[in-house]
C-alpha cells in the first residue's frame, strides 16, 4: 500500500511537471523573436594628434529596440527604444549606465533653447545626387549617391546603397539624431526638405565615405557594412545587466554619448 501511494505521488508529480512545461513553453518561445544582425566596420582619420582608427560594431534589432554594441568588451553600448524615446548608454568598463529620454529632453528645454537648436538645424541644406555608377560591395549590388550637407558644418558624402535587402531603420536613426516628424524640425519646411532629399537614396547604405570640416580641421570617416542576417534574439539582449549602476548625466565620470560606437546605420 505504501509503494502504491508513493507511485501515485510520483505520477502526480510527473503530470504536474509536464503540465508546467506545457504552460511555460509559449512564454519561453516568446522570449525570443527573429531579429536583424548587422556588423559594421567604422574607420576615421584626421583627428588632431590621433592615428587613424578602425572599430567593429554590431547592431541588433528586435523586440522594437535597437542595440549598437562595441567589439571592445570594455567599450560602450547603446540601446534605442523609439516607443519610449529612451536612449540607454552602458559603459562595460565600469559597469555603469545612464539614460536620456529624447522626448522629455525636448519638453524640458526652454522655448528660447528649443528655438535656438531648431534654428541651427534649419540652417542645414541637404543635396542628394543619384548617379548611374554601380558596384558590388560585400555581395550586395550597390548604387552610388553623392550627398552634400551645408550649414553648421560642411560635409561631403559618398553613399553606396543597395536595394537587395529590405531594411528600414529610420525610426531608430530619427530618435538618435532628433530628426524625423517627431524631432526638433518636426513638420517644418526645412524638415520636409531635408527628409525629401535623403529619400532619394534608394535602399540601405552599405558603404558611406564622409569628409567634413570642423573648426579648421579636415576629418574623414568611413562606415562599411560587412554582414546583414536574420537570427533569433532574446529580449534580455536589450536590457541593462542587473549589476550595473545607474549614473546621472551630470555626474563626474559618467560616460558621454560620444563614447557610443559609431557603427549605427
Secondary structure layout:
Blueprint lengths: L1 H29 L1 E14 L7 E10 L2 E6 L5 E6 L4 E6 L4 E6 H7 L2 H12 L2 E13 L2 E11 L3 E9 L7 H8 L11 H10 L5 E11 L2 E18 L10 E2 L19
Parallel strand pairs: 6-12
Antiparallel strand pairs: 1-2, 1-11, 2-3, 3-4, 4-5, 5-6, 7-8, 8-9, 9-10, 10-11
Uncertain runs: 1-30, 251-265
* Helical coverage, percent range: 10-25%
Q: What is the total domain count? A: 2
Radius of gyration: 24 Å
* Outline type: globular
Alpha-beta classification: alpha+beta
Q: How many individual β-strands?
A: 12
| Percent in strands | 35-45%
Q: Which CATH class of the largest domain is shown? A: Mainly Beta
Q: Whole-Å distance between the termini?
A: 70 Å
State the CATH topology of the largest domain. Answer: outer membrane lipoprotein receptor (LolB), chain A
Elements, N to C (H/E) = HEEEEEEHHEEEHHEEE
Outline:
The chain has 2 domains: 2-30; 33-259, outer membrane lipoprotein receptor (LolB), chain A. The chain is built from 5 helices and 12 strands. A 12-stranded mixed β-sheet has the order 7-8-9-10-11-1-2-3-4-5-6-12.
Report on the architecture of this protein:
- The protein is 25% helix and 42% strand.
- The protein has 265 residues and is α+β, with helices and mostly antiparallel strands.
- The protein has two domains: 2-30; 33-259, Lipoprotein localisation LolA/LolB/LppX (outer membrane lipoprotein receptor (LolB), chain A).
- It has a twelve-stranded mixed beta sheet with strand order 7-8-9-10-11-1-2-3-4-5-6-12.
- The N and C termini lie far apart (70 Å).
Amino acid at each position: 500500500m505504501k509503494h502504491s501511494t508513493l507511485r501515485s505521488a510520483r505520477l502526480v508529480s510527473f503530470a504536474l511537471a509536464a503540465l508546467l512545461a506545457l504552460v511555460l513553453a509559449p512564454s519561453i518561445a516568446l522570449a525570443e523573436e527573429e531579429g536583424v544582425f548587422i556588423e559594421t566596420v567604422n574607420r576615421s582619420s584626421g583627428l588632431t594628434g590621433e592615428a587613424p582608427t578602425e572599430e567593429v560594431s554590431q547592431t541588433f534589432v528586435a523586440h522594437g529596440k535597437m542595440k549598437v554594441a562595441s567589439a571592445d568588451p570594455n567599450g560602450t553600448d547603446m540601446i534605442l527604444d523609439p516607443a519610449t524615446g529612451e536612449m540607454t548608454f552602458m559603459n562595460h568598463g565600469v559597469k555603469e549606465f545612464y539614460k536620456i529620454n529624447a522626448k522629455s529632453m525636448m519638453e524640458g528645454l526652454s522655448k528660447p533653447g528649443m528655438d535656438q537648436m531648431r534654428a541651427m538645424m534649419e540652417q542645414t541644406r541637404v543635396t542628394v545626387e543619384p548617379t548611374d555608377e554601380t558596384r558590388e560591395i560585400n555581395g550586395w549590388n550597390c548604387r552610388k549617391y553623392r550627398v552634400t550637407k551645408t550649414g553648421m558644418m560642411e560635409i561631403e558624402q559618398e553613399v553606396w546603397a543597395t536595394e537587395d535587402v529590405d531594411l528600414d531603420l529610420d525610426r531608430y536613426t530619427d530618435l538618435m539624431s532628433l530628426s524625423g516628424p517627431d524631432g526638433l524640425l518636426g513638420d517644418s519646411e526645412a524638415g520636409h526638405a531635408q527628409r525629401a532629399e535623403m529619400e532619394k537614396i534608394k535602399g540601405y547604405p552599405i558603404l558611406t565615405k564622409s569628409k567634413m570640416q570642423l573648426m579648421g580641421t579636415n576629418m574623414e570617416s568611413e562606415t562599411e557594412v560587412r554582414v546583414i542576417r536574420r537570427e533569433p534574439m532574446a529580449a534580455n539582449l536589450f536590457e541593462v545587466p542587473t549589476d550595473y549602476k545607474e549614473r546621472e548625466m551630470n555626474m563626474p565620470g559618467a560616460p558621454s554619448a560620444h563614447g557610443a560606437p559609431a557603427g549605427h546605420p
